[in-house]
Design a protein that fits this description.
- Helices cover 29% and strands 15% of the residues.
- The chain starts with a strand and ends in a 10-residue tail after the last helix.
- It is built from ten helices and twelve strands.
- The chain is of the alpha/beta class.
Length: 319
């Protein structure tokens, strides 16, 4: 039995693209025939309507809210991370996390790669000085072609990044907890390994991309950065607690790695006291690698497919 009514409380005070708008309501109702979408603009309105809704679309959901949500069968969030949903799926309740972010994050990662490899910061600096620094800039230029890319956390997002990098002629090593069959786009030089092989893999890595979730807190240590080639670039788009900031700053300032693109941090917003702000070979993005005007459109399309495919069963009464 499909759900008939879904409640939306999806607002964001800073990023306009993360606010659920009338066009998203219209799209969801069009893609799921018979579905009634009710939009709330504040938490009080949401909690007042929750007892009569079978579904909820939210950024966060508190455990105590379940007490009054007796008809709830589905909690859906655009977020890929499980940090802000305090309840677990169980009998009569499904939780849907966003799985559409890969293409958007891949664009950001590849953009950062070219930022470093094509010496865009130097070109911009020379442009401001009106200098035709052809020789200096040419000495800095590199290519993605035949680059050895290690993706640490080879899930949906890591897969999306890897698939797009193959078009540039990169060799991919995906690192994950459990070995799985290789994707169809892999070639003979690509591989999937576990973290047990990190020392050999890291020593042969030109670009290390971390897409690790928060559960992998502290897994990257100073020794891992030291094993990377000095020409290696580091990219972090999963969660910022998987490495120690002091270890990364040390690696960057000592020239143990060539640079870093950082979209996520252990403490957000990144404090003004952080040494990362003062490190030249760092590109900082304030947790926006998946931001796009199409963000919620992609989410709605994905969620509609899931709703249309699922049987949410009868109402479950919770004590």
């Amino acid at each position: 039995m499909p759900i008939k009514k879904i409640l939306v409380y999806l607002t964001h005070p800073h990023v306009e693209a993360w606010n659920f708008k009338p066009q998203h309501k219209d799209l969801l109702e069009r893609l799921v025939p018979g579905l009634i979408v009710e939009v709330c603009l504040n938490s009080k309105d949401f909690k007042d309507r929750l007892p009569h809704s079978e579904g909820a679309i939210v950024w966060f959901f508190k455990e105590q809210w379940l007490e009054s949500a007796l008809e709830l069968k589905l909690i859906a969030t655009p977020a890929a991370g499980k940090d802000w949903i305090e309840v677990q799926a169980g009998e009569g309740l499904q939780i849907s996390f966003g799985g559409f972010h890969g293409s958007l994050i891949a664009e950001s990662v590849i953009g950062a790669m070219f930022y470093f490899l094509k010496a865009f910061p130097m070109s911009l600096a020379m442009q401001k000085q009106k200098k035709w620094a052809r020789v200096k800039i040419s000495e800095k230029l590199q290519s993605l072609y035949k680059s050895r890319v290690t993706i640490f956390g080879f899930g949906k997002i890591g897969n999306a990044i890897a698939e797009r990098l193959k078009a540039f002629g990169c060799t991919i090593t995906g690192i994950k907890r459990n070995l799985t069959p290789a994707p169809q786009y892999f070639t003979a030089s690509d591989r999937i390994l576990t973290f047990d092989n990190w020392k050999t893999v890291f020593a042969e890595t030109d670009h290390l991309i971390s897409v690790l979730p928060g559960e992998a807190s502290g897994i990257l240590q100073a020794e891992h950065f030291r094993v990377l080639p000095k020409s290696c670039y580091f990219y972090s788009v999963g969660r910022g607690n998987v490495y120690q900031e002091t270890d990364l700053v040390q690696a960057l300032q000592a020239g143990e790695i060539a640079g870093a693109y950082l979209d996520v941090f252990e403490e957000e917003p990144l404090p003004e006291s952080s040494n990362l702000w003062k490190t030249d070979n760092v590109l900082i993005q304030p947790h926006l690698s998946a931001a796009s005007p199409q963000y919620l459109e992609l989410f709605v399309e994905e969620l509609a497919k899931r709703i249309n495919a699922e049987d949410f069963g009868p109402k479950i009464i919770r004590d």
